[in-house]
Predict the structure.
Amino acid sequence: MSGARVAWAVLRKDLLLDLRSRDRAGHMGVFAFLVVALLSITLPESPEAAGAWVPALLWILLLLTSILGLARSFAAESEAGAVATLAGVACDRGWVFLGKAGANLIALLALQLWVAVLAAVFLDVRWEAAGWRAAAVGALGALGLASVGTLLAALSVSVRAREFLLPVLLFPLVLPVLVICARLTAESLGGDPTPGLWWGVLGLYDWVFVLIGYFVFDHVLED
Amino acid sequence: MVSLFVGGAVLAVSGWLVWLSRGREHRGHSVAGLLALAALLLWAWMVAFHAPVERAQGLVQKIFYVHVPCVIPAYLGFGLTALAGIGFLRSRNESWDRLAAASAEVGVVFCSLILATGPIWAKPVWGHWWVWDLRLTSTLVLWFIYLAYLLLRGFAFGSDTARTFTAVYGIVGTAAIPFVYFAVDLARGDTLHPSNPAREGLPAAMSETLGAGMVAFVLVFGFLTARRLAAARLESDLLEASERSPVG
């Protein structure tokens, strides 16, 4: 089977599982809803004061929620004892990584849409002013989270205490994504202008970690 | 001249450690220990008597001779961890894994020293224990990354899979460091932290003391890592022996 078909099969399988069981999506959606509700209650009422914090808070919320999904992203395989089957594909195992990361990317994009709606309703965020820039930041940020997150989820799946370990492994590594995305989102919502270089660094981060994931996954899925 | 000595010490120590990790013999530990001790004594003498007391900051400036030299063994440790990780993934030779473990642990010790000594200096000079500035934040994140690395090691101990995972995390963590540095730089803008070029203008006695500290700390790093390597070798021998003849 060609690599692209393997990646597509893995991606399709993961998304189908998500659609049919709705476990992962349900948990993530409810969790995000709860946190946005908490934010809207606890943030100060004056819109200027709250507005300065909202982009950073939303990105932290996305990171926390993504942990819930990422931690489960190899659960189906490991519970069914099918990790070895995945490892036995007749192509470069990097393609399995691309499929898994693709499924996580789509899940994260759906989560972002949901959070954007929640933020518009409860936190008064005006996305129509932000336009395509906010969407582009979201996509690039989701790609960074999905690539690093998928790789680390695969690392921590066979380790004990993985629920505890995954955030500890992930947070320091995705700090650049979080910092840059929060600033760019703030800019798109009318905050301080940011240099164009930031977009380049964000894109480079995504590119580097997709490549690293592709190449080291061969070792990760070995057994 | 100072950087020549420091560079030489770094190269010699990393070469020695790689050589040690490959072989079965543990030669040269006592020589390395004595060298490190002598260098430490010389450095301590220079800090106390050779380097002048700085006019504006007073005695507290002397912590600079502890703080700055720690940076080299910390980065050396993390660099060796990533290199040994690549070596392990390529060759599957356990000796690379032991080198990665030993240098990460000792690197974290020096990184902790950087983080501990910085605030002691910053409180009287800046008026704050901690500011969210480029150098401080990126060093803290680096420390978090290697702490996570050691946690992963602790949770996944012994198997070949565990070695692979830690090697991968070591490589991924090192790849993230430039991005962390860049992101924090972009986000925080101006830095309060004294920059490297400021060191060029140091009086000779100060830069000599600093250089002596760097060489001494690199030697201490080499000695500690070598001891840790020997302990790791004993651990794996013990594991093998207990697998061969299980008790009970």
In short: Chain B is about 80% helix and 0% strand.
